[in-house]
Write a structure and sequence with these properties.
0% strand; 72% helix; single chain
Amino acid sequence: MPLPIDFIRATLAVLAVIFAYVFGRYAVRSRQGRARGSLVLTWGFRFSASLLAVFWTRQFDLIAIMALIFAGASLGTGIWLELHPKQEPDLTKTMFPEE
C-alpha cells in the first residue's frame, strides 16, 4: 500500500524546517568568514528544494503554509543564534577558590 502524498509532503516540510535552520547558521558563518561559500549554497539548495517539493502538488494548503511559516521562523532562529553566541562561563574561581 503506497504512502499518502500528504505524509510525504509533511516529512519534506519537517526537513525544510531543519534545513532552514542550518542554512541560516551557515549563512552567518560565511558572512563572518568562518565557513566556505559552498556549504551555504549546499544548505540553501537543500532548503529550497525541499520547500519547493512541498508546494509541488498543491500550491497553498495547510501543510504548505505551515511549512513556510515554520521554515521562516527556523531560518530566523538560526541566524539569531549564530549572531548571538552563548558565552562560556568562567569556572576558574569556582573550581579553584582563593584561600
